[in-house]
């Protein structure tokens, strides 16, 4: 049960986005709870209304959490203007993520929770990764195994492709990829969510799941063979399921996770059902990582000490889910050795 005691590492995200405001409001909401976290960011972004304590190591977080927000300092090289991102601050954004991962890999943090980054802002500074998901895998030495899951209480989805064009998602779809994502999903449902016999629904790609090849043949060539091979392995997988009805209220209780074949096939239903409660989770890492399901929201970002329109629910869900996953993983590992 070691992870139950470890604080969560919360990254800064883009300093010009809503991340800094969300972090301080999340601390206010959680300061009397067991969801202890420390924020890795620039304290100049917090304003004077929030008590914070600079810490040198995650082990110091729990002692001060009820009184002050624990902060591990990372300094932005350039002045920050809310809503006006600058690639001049990319180094601090990246350093925050790197430190969080190091703490999780060493066991000093129970999980990494990331605040949103703007991919194009980091790309302009030469950052080679399309998003957190791929960067985290590179930091953990598991590139190629990363899988994006989006989860809300009503629905969990995982994706066979992440930050690529729709065209590329279709061109690179393979039975091997569907099987890899399905195996990782089933394993995470058992280990991190306590679902002992996970049921997977594999989405089709085309209208009516291809209608026997009339509307596309990926279901016949790729998806159906993958489902049969998964069943041979003992994984409870069904499909290809017609995507237009897969997310209906009647269908959702019949599976524990839907395997989706491109980014928006999975993210649209989750965000439509529950934008506030949705959480982005990375599978395939040796560490636990969650994130709110929204982005940087530059259009509503406010400066230090100000309170704007940002809804903190998704960050609270991400912190709560990271905590619960860490506890569940610890319990599962204790049972399974
Ligand atoms: N995990 C991450 O780091 C993510 C980063 N992004 C990045 O965010 C940037 C902006 O992306 P968009 O597509 O505009 O998505 P967005 O989620 O930042 O904003 C879309 C709309 O939702 C609103 N919104 C978002 N979060 C909100 C919250 N907590 N409370 C109230 N309203 C909220 C925004 O004000 C905006 O009108 C992009 O550069 C993208 O790369 C997007 C998704 C996830
Ligand atoms: N649409 C989800 C998203 O862009 C988040 O990506 P990541 O930064 O968590 O990899």
UniProtKB/TrEMBL annotation:
Domain of life: Bacteria
Listed pathway(s): Cofactor biosynthesis; pyridoxine 5'-phosphate biosynthesis; pyridoxine 5'-phosphate from D-erythrose 4-phosphate: step 4/5
The protein's name: 4-hydroxythreonine-4-phosphate dehydrogenase
Record Gene3D superfamilies: Isopropylmalate Dehydrogenase
Annotated compartments: Cytoplasm
GO MF annotation, one: 4-hydroxythreonine-4-phosphate dehydrogenase activity
Any further remark recorded for this protein: The active site is located at the dimer interface.
Cofactor requirement: Zn(2+); Mg(2+); Co(2+)
Cofactor annotation comment: Binds 1 divalent metal cation per subunit. Can use ions such as Zn(2+), Mg(2+) or Co(2+).
NCBIfam families from the UniProt entry: pdxA, PRK05312.1
EC number: 1.1.1.262
Chief place where the protein resides: cytoplasm
Positions that bind a divalent metal cation: 163, 208, 263
Reactions catalysed, as given in the entry: 4-(phosphooxy)-L-threonine + NAD(+) = 3-amino-2-oxopropyl phosphate + CO2 + NADH
HAMAP family: PdxA
Subunit: Homodimer.
